[in-house]
Amino acid sequence: MDEEEEEEVSVCGGPFGVEDSVKSGGGPLLALLGFLIFPLIWSIPEALVTAELATSFPENGGYVLWISTAFGPFWGFQVGFWRWFSGVMDNALYPVLFLDYLKHSLPIFNRLIARIPALLGITFSLTYLNHRGLHIVGFSAVAIAIFSLCPFFIMGLFSIPRIKPTQWLVVDVKMVNWRGYINNMFWNLNYWDGVSTLAGEVDNPSKTLPKALFGAVVLMICTYLIPLLAGTGALESKASEWSDGYFAEVGMLIGGVWLKWWIQAAAAVSNMALFEAEMSADAFQLLGMSEMGMLPAFFASRSKYGTPTTSILCSATGVVFLSWLSFQEIIEFLNFLYSIGMLIEFAAFVRLRIDKPDLRRPYRVPLQTLGVTILCVPWDSSYTCYVSCFIQNVNSKWKCYCARNDLACCISTSEGKELDQI
């Protein structure tokens, strides 16, 4: 497998879905700053931790094995289940996004009568492709990455004569939706540890994984910034127009209809690749947990292609049942589960440095224990706040729900009393 291309598609796959960062950020400025600053706080520390621990434990199961070694099998299982469930929720997004891009050219997919069969057909066909073997995913990732990124490189070149740098500085503070902005940034910039669940399938992971992770970080930043710089600098579009799928319109305005069609096709193919990569990671995570004795042995059964059949079917079933949730609900909940899991992963990373200093580490983050603890602080602090805000938001929604029910009961009771009096 070409691990660098696989990791790039797994965590990024193109700038599709970043358009909302301009809308929720009230303009281009916060979106551009976010993709410059947040990788330093989130992506790089997570990639460094993953590189060290994935090469120290080059087995399927990844972070489940790290946490079990640091804190015991109970916490390993808990985080493994949370992360598997968040991965399945993440996968439920991609068929939806695929149809969202496709409906710009084929409006019939706005109708449930066409949308539901299409979602089921996409899920079942991609599940079969995943069942056929990882080599399909790995080799396809190379062509998909090139096909998905080329139209944005061309768009960037075409936009140069029209760019006005002052447009990059636009921000309307009153229009900023901080909740949507942070959720969008988090979803686009994290999930680097997913490759660890496939470490047992990678040739020479001690050399391949660190190179793939660091190369993918650079590619990800460029993949997001170049289209945003081109689109926001060359066009005077309102922030409210930047929603999912808007890059297709940007391509048409800058390069013509042919570029719009290319971007739409690239979006569709990229979302399919993300689905395949995520399902592979989720399925091999279950396989690794089964090999560790945390799940029944049938989760470790492999097909003649070497893929974990039962684990793939289990993940696909979860995708089908979660597809009815809204995009925003899925994003918030999977970010919440991922945040909790990553807090424990970072704690396991520090604890293993303290408790097992002699552990074989083919790649080692070039910092001592105090240094790696400081490295983890910005991530831990920001996502402790995120988890707290999520819980507070859930509580406020629950209070509103209870208040509405109480009000409805009061109205019903008062109406009943009036009827009795009559």
Question: What would you note in describing this structure?
Answer:
By secondary structure, the chain is mainly alpha-helical. It has one domain: Amino acid/polyamine transporter I (Up-down Bundle), CATH 1.20.1740. The protein contains 14 helices and no strands. It has helices at 3-11, 19-24, 28-56, 63-71, 73-102, 112-131, 134-159, 178-189, 205-234, 246-255, 257-291, 309-322, 327-355, 369-421. Helix 5 (73-102) packs antiparallel against helix 13, helix 11 (257-291) packs across helix 12 and helix 13 runs antiparallel to helix 14. The longest helix has 53 residues, at 369-421. The chain is globular and about 55 Å long. The termini are far apart. The model is unreliable at 1-11 and 394-422 (pLDDT under 50). Its main location: membrane. Belongs to the amino acid-polyamine-organocation (APC) superfamily. Polyamine:cation symporter (PHS) (TC 2.A.3.12) family.
Give the SSE layout.
Blueprint lengths: L2 H9 L7 H6 L3 H29 L6 H9 L1 H30 L9 H20 L2 H26 L18 H12 L15 H30 L11 H10 L1 H35 L17 H14 L4 H29 L13 H53 L1
Main location: membrane
Subcellular location: Cell membrane
Membrane topology: Multi-pass membrane protein
CATH architecture: Up-down Bundle
Q: Percent range for helical residues?
A: over 70%
Terminal Cα span: 78 Å
CATH topology: Amino acid/polyamine transporter I
Spans of at least 5 consecutive residues whose pLDDT stays below 50 are 1-11, 394-422
**Main beta sheet strand tally, sense and closure:** none
Task: Determine Rg (CA atoms, Å).
Answer: 23 Å
Structural class: mainly alpha
Strand content: under 5%
Shape: globular
Report mean pLDDT, rounded to a whole number.
78
Q: What is the CATH homology-level superfamily?
A: Amino acid/polyamine transporter I
Number of helices: 14
Secondary-structure element order, N to C: HHHHHHHHHHHHHH
> Under the CATH scheme, which class?
Mainly Alpha
Task: Tell me the number of structural domains.
Answer: 1
Number of strands: 0
InterPro entries: AA/rel_permease1 (IPR002293), RMV1-like (IPR044566)
Pfam families: AA_permease_2
Subcellular location: Cell membrane
Keywords: Cell membrane, Membrane, Symport, Transmembrane, Transmembrane helix, Transport
